[in-house]
UniProtKB/TrEMBL annotation, chain A:
Its main location: membrane. The keyword ATP-binding applies. InterPro entries: AAA+_ATPase, ABC_ATPase_HisP-typ, ABC_transporter-like_ATP-bd, ABC_transporter-like_CS, MetN_ABC_transporter-like, P-loop_NTPase. One of its GO terms (molecular function) is ATP hydrolysis activity. The keyword Membrane applies. GO terms for cellular component: plasma membrane. This is Amino acid ABC transporter ATP-binding protein, PAAT family (TC 3.A.1.3.-). It is a peripheral membrane protein. It comes from Pelagibacterium luteolum. It is found in: Cell membrane.
UniProtKB/TrEMBL annotation, chain B:
Residues 18-207 form the ABC transmembrane type-1 domain. It comes from the Bacteria. It is a multi-pass membrane protein. The chain crosses the membrane at residues 20-42, 79-97, 132-154, 185-204. The keyword Hydrolase does not apply. This is Polar amino acid transport system permease protein. It holds the Pfam family BPD_transp_1. One of its GO terms (molecular function) is L-cystine transmembrane transporter activity.
């Protein structure tokens, strides 16, 4: 379970998160929608400790992320994250990208790591690209590789940070299909997205972010069909 | 030889000098590169109160002419009674000089690796050292290599200045022969130049080859 409790976060004098609270249960898929710069992505970076916070508390399975003694490297093994700019390691092949952390972080042998990586790469439809360098892949393929790379660590949670925003429209579908598959398999996911159709279809709950605050959170049908807050209604009006 | 008064003995003498040139270049590059990596890591991760003094020292090493550094350090070590031989003095001074340039090359290489790529590495549970070893340095090397090759070729030529502390490397050995056979000066200098070229050429080819190979994967 991920619990975010009244989190505040500033970059210099600009407060990006102004007291955000939400909880994500095991097996749940929560989509986070809202305009650019509303703090959605920053919240994801705070969950696995890539960004420090100024106030509040985030706990993952009872471990306080920003507490002094927390072993972030250990915590991050349980939290996979996929970024908008896929962030492939360009000097490594698809297989090496996927096995690097398995071998160096989890200490698996090359044979073990290769087996796990091949399974995950097959899963996202890249089983025939093992020896290829990321530079030779399309954006959608690189993004699916990034998903496989995160999944290979067998995380309990997956965070997706606008993973389709930088993709050509015709490549969005293949990445969303991969995420749908994951959701169906019961992965606990927080998905920051601009794909309203996807959020509506896959999520258990949807959260609406604006100006560093969650204005509304609820089931997709409630939030999309009868939003309680005027801000939510106005945002949906502008994107749908 | 070839109807001139330059003998095989002279050539052998020059080859011995060339061997010293190579040896000094090797040790200077090895020491300078290792120090440069350490200093570069420190410089790209340190607060200003570490960076400023360190930058100042490296600036001194970079801006004071090498010839003066050789003579000053050699005098210093003999006054201090360290009893280092001129070859070692040459290697030490040149390594320190090289490290100052290499530090900036390494710092530039590290900074060229996108923060987002490093975040991806950290998000997979890699610690700082693993991120450095498997992501940042391999990627940074692609950026650093051309400058590093240039540095190597420059240092090889700079080794000629160790004549000032009495090491007879390639250029000095050529000059010695020229003082004995001044009428062959052009031929001897041409031979010396050819030797420098023969040694440098493979280094720059290796650099070009690696750059091409890496570019193909991108």
């Amino acid at each position: 379970m991920i619990e975010i409790d009244n989190v505040r976060k500033s970059f210099d004098s600009f407060e990006v998160l102004k007291g955000v609270s939400m909880a994500v249960e095991k097996g749940e898929v929560v989509s986070v929608i809202g305009g650019s710069g509303s703090g959605k992505s920053t919240m994801l970076m705070c969950i696995n400790g890539l960004e420090p916070i100024n106030a509040g508390k985030i706990t993952v399975d009872g471990t306080e992320v920003h507490a002094k003694g927390t072993d972030l490297n250990k915590l991050r093994r349980n939290i996979g994250i996929v970024f908008q700019q896929w962030n492939a390691f360009p000097h490594l092949t698809v297989l090496e990208n996927t096995t690097l952390a398995l071998r160096k972080v989890l200490g698996k042998s090359k044979a073990e790591a290769d087996e796990i990586a091949k399974k995950q790469l097959n899963h996202v439809g890249l089983g025939d690209k093992l020896k290829v360098y990321p530079g030779k892949l399309s954006g959608g393929q690189q993004q699916r590789m990034a998903i496989a790379r995160a999944l290979a660590m067998e995380p309990k949670y997956m965070l997706f940070d606008e993973v389709t925003s930088a993709l050509d429209p015709q490549l969005v579908g293949e990445v969303l299909d991969t995420m749908r598959l994951l959701a169906k398999e019961g992965m606990t996911m927080i998905v920051v997205t601009h794909e309203m159709g996807f959020a509506r279809e896959v999520s258990n709950r949807v959260a609406f972010f604006k100006d560093g605050l969650i204005h509304e959170i609820g089931s997709p049908s409630q939030l999309f069909e009868s939003p309680e807050r005027p801000e939510t209604a106005a945002f949906l009006q502008s994107v749908l | 030889m070839l109807g001139t008064s330059v003998t095989w003995g002279d050539i052998t003498f020059m080859m011995t000098g060339a061997g010293l040139t190579l040896a000094i270049t090797f040790w200077a590059m090895l020491g300078g590169t290792l120090l440069g990596i350490v200093f570069g890591l420190i410089r790209s991760h340190s607060p200003w109160y570490v960076n400023y003094p360190m930058g100042a020292v490296l600036d001194v090493l970079r801006s004071v002419p090498l010839l003066i550094q050789f003579i000053l350090f050699n005098s210093f070590q003999s006054i201090a009674g360290w009893g280092m031989n001129p070859f070692v003095v040459g290697c030490v001074v040149l390594a320190a000089y090289t490290s100052a340039f290499c530090t900036e090359i390494v710092r530039g290489g590290i900074q060229a690796v996108p923060v987002t790529t490093r975040r991806a590495a950290r998000s997979l549970g890699m610690n700082w050292a693993q991120d450095m070893a498997y992501i940042v340095l391999p990627l940074g090397t692609r950026v650093m290599l051309p400058s590093w090759i240039g540095l190597t070729l420059g240092v090889m030529k700079d080794t000629a200045l160790v004549y000032a502390i009495g090491v007879i490397e390639l250029l000095r050995s050529s000059q010695i022969i020229i003082t004995r056979k001044p009428h062959e000066a052009l031929l001897i200098l041409a031979i010396a130049g050819l030797i420098y070229f023969i040694v440098s050429f493979p280094v720059s080819r290796l650099g070009a080859h690696l750059e091409k190979k890496w570019r193909e994967n991108d």
